[in-house]
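Assemble and predict.
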Amino acid sequence: MKKYLSFFKMRLIASLQYRAAALAGLSTQFVWGGMEVLLYRALWSAHPERFPMGAEALAAYIWLQQAFLTFFALWQWDRELAESVRNGTVAYELTRPTDLYGMWFAKSLAQRVSRGLLRCAPVILLGALIPAPWGLRLRVSPAAFGLFLLSTALMLLVVCSMSMLTYALCFFVTDHRGIVTVLTPLADFLGGAIVPLPFLPEGLRRFAELTPFGAMQNVPLRVFGGDLAGAAALRAVGLQVFWAAAMTAAGYALMRAGLRRTVIAGG
Amino acid sequence: MKLYFHYMSLHVRSRMAYKASFLMECLGQMLIGLELILGVYFITERFGSVGGYTLRECALCCGTVLMASSLAECFGRGFDHFSYVLSSARFDRLLVQPRPLVLQVLCTELRLNLVPRVAEAAVMIAWGAGSVRWTAGKAAVLVLMVLGGTSVFFGLFLLSAAMCFYTLESLEVMNIFTDGAREYGKYPFGVYGRGVLWLLTLIVPLALCQHWPLRYLLDRGPAVFGLLPLLAPLFLIPCTLAWRHGVRHYRSTGS
């Protein structure tokens, strides 16, 4: 466990070096959130009764989505890892006395967490300064906040295990870009990045919530705004646990199978 | 120009060497466009209209912006990827070759996988066209909207490349206007309120190729609005100046 922690720490420190990039990303996030809010505000002024969730819950969803974008943005792949399978440098990694899966998992987790931590505070702050109901309201009940933290942690596990599953697939297909280009838009849509899931028609929404994509940003963002609460929230968190476990197991098995048949040429 | 076509044919042939991967990328690009219109679909289905625009009208709008951005990205990708050219010191090589710089950068990459996205945009426009009472003038305006939009997007790429001279890193800030404009251009910019509309009319003139002429197409604005896309290419002037300034500022990056 200790060695994974140190991999985690190394990555964290390395990513924290890029502070200028984070600052630049920040303004982007703020503008994107702002445009989204302006759009829904226009919709709200026309038909408030057709909203599936309250304005405040939606605002919380949008601002937190921008703040924690790197936590769940599936398009933020670690190219280094996928490339290492392609060009054979994975051999170096294999000589280390650590489990490859655990090491990569720790790395990708650290990358997401570090990028997110750098960015989230200012976006949250700016979001909170926007007048109600379109600003981020920070007063939440302790229970909801606890659940939010729990589901955020679980979401990170789900996202990373999904990425790991993809990296494991790299051992079989050599060119990962194909999988990535198809998976990313799918995840965006079913995960609620394009339109928050409650805005989808009933049947599609139920389906999306059951998929692993629905166990990502959808849960914590809605828990915070209070849109997802009580038994439904607990069910969603349970589903997160299931997907994290299932995909970790699948990714682990797939990676072992992949490693068994991998032949590294050259010396 | 001959040189350009030569480079382009090289790119085409090199892409065709890996057909499967190329097809996958095409599919991915199409999914992005599909996602865009699906988002519009679910929102308009729930609310009936967005800021007074129906699904078809939004599709027309979304299609023109998607087409303009795809065309600009398809050819201007070299500028979009300029930080790579700079950080790998390939720019030095371009500087010593006796051909126009802009042309050479244009030649560094051609994104053929965007061709399906252009086709997708054409389908959106064709379907959205049902909401317009067409005249020859309006058809011309539509073409102007796409071309004007392409020039603005291209200017944005040029600007972000120019900024790379100072930062050596591509700036995510420019995403606001390139990817962001494509994403939010799916609805007429007027939907987002006056502030945004004026910003996108006067500073980064994307609305000149989207919101205003669209009003004319849908018979909600005077014919003058249809001529506004002609002003959009003026945006290229400050962008070119910035690029030139950047080139003069440039001191090599590495060996």
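Residues 2-261 of chain A form one domain.
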